[in-house]
Write a structure and sequence with these properties.
The chain is mainly alpha-helical. It has helices at residues 4-41, 43-88.
Length: 100
């Protein structure tokens, strides 16, 4: 009547197809996790991880060195400017009050 049996059959087929897709998706996720863990724990994966960690540490060291050098440069330029100012700026003449 009104095609209800046909709709029930289609619904059942869609439900079964959905169940198969969910099972396949679950198996694919497990496989992806397994492959990822194998790649990470392999010798190649460990070497890549070590290299990435080393480059990160090198970048941090370079940034620290740049910061220190900038600080030293500022201090040295300050000392030099004070020396130049004291050396080349004439001091005001001192008055001799003993000329009586």
């Amino acid at each position: 009547m009104f095609g209800l049996n046909k709709m029930y059959q289609e619904r059942e087929q869609l439900y079964l197809r959905c169940q198969r897709q969910q099972a396949k998706a679950g198996a694919d996720r497990k496989l992806a996790k397994k492959q990822t863990l194998e790649a990470i724990s392999s010798t190649k994966g460990l070497l890549v991880s070590f290299a990435l960690g080393l480059t990160t540490q090198c970048e941090i060291a370079q940034q620290s060195r740049r910061t220190i050098l900038k600080g030293i440069q500022t201090e040295v330029l300050g000392v030099i400017s004070q020396y130049v100012a004291a050396r080349f700026n004439p001091e005001p003449p001192q008055s001799n009050s003993s000329k009586d």
